[in-house]
Amino acid sequence: MTLGVVFALAAGTxxxxxxxxxxRGRIRISDQWEQLMxxxxxxLLAAFVxxxxxxxxxxxxxxxxxxxxxxxxVLAWRRAPFVLVVVAAAATTALLRLTGIxx
Length: 103
Known about the structure:
Blueprint: H1 3-23, H2 31-54, E1 55-56, E2 59-60, H3 63-77, H4 82-99
Antiparallel strand pairs: 1-2
């Protein structure tokens, strides 16, 4: 990546972060649009999780990763502490790979 591209990305990132506080009082967004944007952010995050769960280096990541993400997802849904969610997901994936049940 060239230095010009790095500076352009930095300037764009800074401008996006600065736009929020500067435009907060000037632009009024309806409650329906706020709810729609909130849902869109959740959908985007879910798509990222699904993609990174399924693929690694252009190929299938394996069933062990699916199991680990599922365990972590269930624990997060049940409002378990974050450390427990991460450790349980990692342990599930590691144990399945170690035993050879799911690669």
